[in-house]
Amino acid sequence: MEQGIRCIIGLGNPGAKYQGTRHNAGFWFVDALARRHRLQLRPESKFFGQLAKLSLPAGDCWLFQPATYMNRSGQAASALAHFYRLAPGQILVAHDELDLPAGSVRLKKGGGHGGHNGLRDIISALGSKDFYRLRLGIGHPRHRDQVTDYVLSRPSRDDQHKIEEAIELATSQVEELLSGNYQQLMNKLHGSAK
User: What's this model's pTM, rounded to 2 decimal places?
Assistant: First the structure.
């Protein structure tokens, strides 16, 4: 069994303007985890973000939301990773995924950024692609020229419900993440595909 996750970074843009937009799905995941475990995310200026510590039988894990904008997520992620001496394989980045339908959730390790600016900046700042990703499907607008407006707008009520269900499923499996039971977790998440 591999080492477990010790830091979950949810990607999004700070501020009320972006709160309900698809690009903030990673923030929604961390918010849902914090609610589930009755934790309060608190500002940590040295990490350029908000932080809470999750303690479970499987281990301790930092929950983190960068307060930088999406394309500067690496600044916050690397500050936290260096301070706590986290290896890339101990980090999970939760983010919105255009290439999956709303309501899908996938776990994977490594790979490219797929055009996602938050992932691109984290890969650059950490100097590694070898972190885990929780890919939260938001669907695709069907034309690449519409992508920016699409990710920075709110999902339909139906899509919002599907995304929330996927997040609920993923938060219920956090012990598996902390234990390093990645294959088991993938089977559960990927088997629930819409």
Answer: 0.95
